[in-house]
Every structure is written in C-alpha cells, then in structure tokens.
C-alpha cells in the first residue's frame, strides 16, 4: 500500500469526524458528538446539520494537529457522499470540495456502508484482515444487512431488513423502557446484570436471509402495556432482566440468519461492522461461533464501529491507489447503494 496521506471526512448523521491515514495506518481519528439530540429522543436533522457546520473546521484542524501533518502534505481528501441525512452530508461534501479545490488535491467520494465493511482493513482494526470472500453482518441504527464481500469493491447484499434496523429497534425499545437516547449502549450495560431468559418475545419467520425488527418492538410494547396495568413499577423492578431478554432476542434474530448464510454459502470468514457491532453480547456470540462453527471471525476495534472518519479514509486510500477520483460537480445523496 502506498504512503499517500489522505484526509477522511465523515458527516452522515450526528457525528462530525476527521481522520488522517498514511498507507493503512491511522494517524488521527477525531470526532465531535452532538449531545443535543438526547433531549428529543432521536436525531433532529436540522440541528444535526447546524452542529456539523460548527464542528467541521475544529475537528479537521485537530486531526491534522494530532497526526502532526501540514495541509500541504495531504495527497487527497475522502468524504462520505452517502447514504445518510442529506443536510449533514451536504456540510461534509461542501467542505471536502472546497478544501480539495484550495489545496489542488484529488477528491474521493466514499459510500458510508462500504466504509463500515472496509474498516476491517485498517492496520490496527484486527490482528489480521479478512480473506475474500467473507460475509459481513453490517448492523447499525440505520442499516441491517448481510453482505457477501468478494473483493474490496465487489459486494452483494444477500439479506437486509424489510423494516426497522436492529439499532433502531434497540432505541425504540429503549424509549418504551424510558431510557435515554441512544439506548443501545444503555441496554447492553444493564443487560449484564439481568437474566436473558426472563422474558420471551416474538421473532420474525422470514424464509430468506432478510430481517425484520418491527415485530419484536411491537411484542415488547404490548407485553409492557399488559404488565404495567398489573404493576405500575414493572419496568423499574425488572429493567435489567427486560434489557437482557430484549438483547438476547435481537442478537438471536441477527445470528440465525448469519449462520444460515454462512452454512449455505460454505463461508468460514465472517465479520461484523457498524455501530451495533460494539455490543458486548453480539461480540461474545461471534467469539462462541469461532469455537462452535469454526469461523474465522473479524470484530473491529470499538473506535471503528461507530460512524468515524478512519473508515472513510481507509476506503479513500484504496480508491486513491486505483486512481478513482471524483470531480467537483459531485453532490451528496441520502440514498447510495453499495
């Protein structure tokens, strides 16, 4: 891999992030979070785009400072073109285009979902990168899919959610439990103190590799409404067990399809990516399947699971080597297929 120095910019949702990569080694990976969305129980697009405008220059400056890199040393700029919130993407896209033009360096557009998957090829993401072909369970607040990765830029979605994403289900169920947003990490923490077999919730019965998470959300809602009528303190008195049971159900839904796909396609190289891949119980099940099913598993470092610019820089580096540049007429897009 070349020693080119790439600046990566990520602004697809509510995190403003910038990273510097040299070869496949990350020199800096800086992110500014937007705590304001907690008050609203979800990301407010208008507020997100305004915060990106405030954060992007300081974040890029800090990434250059931490990497000890001058602007004129940058070989190219990679940015998230999509998918994501259009207003947020526009901030990152406009900034990347302006900076690339002022520095007279190439501009490289990056697909956010590809970046989650290809984060596995960052030098310190795993002890060893995955071997092609591999399956990647890409699971976050906005997306849940099983991707067959044949090469760096040859990917096929073989299963995806037909309604809610898994991360979205965690957040919506967290709201039922009156937990703060985002609820996924809170449920993960509380679940460690609970019994995952305390309560059973409905699971979807889909024939192929597709997912559905709206059913479990409805199942939890009706169950809670029924129990709270009998005991107004039911949630408070059973919160840890509820979190553990919900988490177990969602992870079983995820893993059943992934195991079926790996068996049907006879693939032993299996990875996870995206924000929900930070979930401790999901990571443990993946480790168990290394033992049980003989999988070679790939679980990225925590800092490369959530939305981050390091993964954007990694894809930009791969595209830079191939001479795959974009011109200044490019625009952000809320929908951007793999």
TrEMBL record:
Q: Which InterPro entries match?
A: ATPase_NBD, Gcp-like_dom, KAE1/TsaD, Peptidase_M22_CS, TsaD
* Cofactor dependency: Fe(2+)
- Binding positions (Fe cation): 112, 116, 307
Write out the GO cellular component annotations: cytoplasm
Q: Return the broad EC class.
A: transferase
Q: Name one Pfam family in it.
A: TsaD
Q: Which HAMAP family match?
A: TsaD
What is the protein name given in its UniProt record?
Answer: tRNA N6-adenosine threonylcarbamoyltransferase
Which organism encodes this protein? Chryseobacterium taiwanense
């Amino acid at each position: 891999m070349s020693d080119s120095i790439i600046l990566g910019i990520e602004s697809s949702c509510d995190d403003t992030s910038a990273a510097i990569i040299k070869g496949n080694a990350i020199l800096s990976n800086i992110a500014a979070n937007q705590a304001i969305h907690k008050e609203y129980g979800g990301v407010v697009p208008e507020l997100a785009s305004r915060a990106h405008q405030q954060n992007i220059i300081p974040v890029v400056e800090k990434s250059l400072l931490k990497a000890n890199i001058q602007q004129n040393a940058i070989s190219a700029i990679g940015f998230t073109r999509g998918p994501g919130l259009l207003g947020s993407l526009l901030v990152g896209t406009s900034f990347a285009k302006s900076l690339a033009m002022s520095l007279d360096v190439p501009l490289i557009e990056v697909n956010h979902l590809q970046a989650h998957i290809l984060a596995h090829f960052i030098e310190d993401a795993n002890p060893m990168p995955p071997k092609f072909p591999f399956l990647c369970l890409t699971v976050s607040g906005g997306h849940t899919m099983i991707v067959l990765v044949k090469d760096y830029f040859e990917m096929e979605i073989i299963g995806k959610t037909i309604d809610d994403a898994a991360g979205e289900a965690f957040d919506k169920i967290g709201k039922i439990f009156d937990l703060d947003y985002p609820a996924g990490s809170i449920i993960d923490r509380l679940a460690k103190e609970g019994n995952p077999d305390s309560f059973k919730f409905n699971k979807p019965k889909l024939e192929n590799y597709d997912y559905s998470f709206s059913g479990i959300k409805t199942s939890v809602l009706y169950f809670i409404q029924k129990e709270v009528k009998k005991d107004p303190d039911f949630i408070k008195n059973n919160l840890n067990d509820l979190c553990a049971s919900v988490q177990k159900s969602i992870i079983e839904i995820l893993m059943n399809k992934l195991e079926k796909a790996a068996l049907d396609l006879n693939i032993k190289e299996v990875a996870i990516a995206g924000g929900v891949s930070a979930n401790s119980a999901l990571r443990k099940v993946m480790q168990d399947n290394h033992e049980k099913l003989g999988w070679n598993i790939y679980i990225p470092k925590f800092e490369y699971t959530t939305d981050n610019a390091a993964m954007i820089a990694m894809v930009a580096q791969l595209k830079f080597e191939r001479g795959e540049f974009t011109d200044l007429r490019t625009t952000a897009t809320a929908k951007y297929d793999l």
